[in-house]
Design a protein that fits this description.
It is built from six helices and eight strands; from the N terminus they run βαβββααβαββαβα. The chain has 173 residues and is α/β, with parallel strands linked by helices. It has a single domain, classed as Flavodoxin domain (Rossmann fold), CATH 3.40.50. The longest helix has 15 residues. The two termini are 15 Å apart. The chain binds flavin mononucleotide (FMN). Flavin mononucleotide binds next to α1, β3, β5, β7 and α5.
């Protein structure tokens, strides 16, 4: 039986949205139904078998109201397997924070829900998309720019997740 999975994300400049779409694509390749939506637009979790949440890190904190999302959907979440990811520069440039700090923030924001998995993916820093202030801040910290998203790692995490969530694979022919 294919599962219906919601991939809900927050994103300021689009790179986390891109990761959410890649996760959905991998789930679809496994024969599941995957829907991608911005977290703020999700009004109900009715009809889903699993949930994956994603949000980027900005200045030391995971962005987006994850705990608000959890409290709004508390009843539905009690019966769904949940996983979460964050995205940022820390995995490639540790001066911007420790990965464990951000995955711990995810776990804390999801409380009282215990996620089956949390992870941090490398994100993107595109100088063209930065404001004057952001450009100043990132160049002061000598943060590397570029697209550091690792699509193989994202696909591998997704496949691992389906096992942890107990979603049987039913590949399309
Ligand atoms: C102003 C600013 C502050 C940032 N702060 C952090 C940070 O503290 N730690 C980190 O790992 N990444 C940090 N980043 C990198 C973002 O997490 C990265 O660009 C991410 O891919 C953005 O996601 P989005 O495109 O979905 O908004 C920062 C980026 C900007 C522009």
């Amino acid at each position: 039986m294919p599962a219906r999975v919601l991939v809900a994300y927050a994103s300021k400049k689009g790179s986390t949205a891109g990761i959410a779409k890649a996760i959905a694509k991998e789930l679809q390749a496994m024969g599941h139904v995957a829907i991608v939506a911005e977290m703020k637009d999700v009004s109900s979790l009715e009809g889903y078998d699993a949930l994956i949440l994603g949000a980027p890190v900005y200045t030391g904190s995971v962005m987006g109201d994850l705990s608000g999302f959890v409290s709004r959907h508390r009843d539905a979440l009690a019966r769904l397997p949940v996983a979460a990811f964050t995205a940022g520069i820390a995995p490639v440039y540790p001066k911007t924070g420790e990965v464990k700090t951000f995955t711990d923030q995810l776990v804390a924001a999801l409380h009282p829900i215990s996620p089956v998995a949390v992870t941090m993916f490398s994100g993107t820093l595109d100088p063209k998309l930065l404001s004057f202030f952001e450009r100043g801040l990132t160049s002061l910290l000598q943060v590397p720019t570029g697209d550091f998203r690792n699509w193989d790692a994202i696909a591998a995490w997704t496949r691992e997740l389906t096992q942890k969530m107990g979603l049987a694979a039913s590949p399309k022919n």
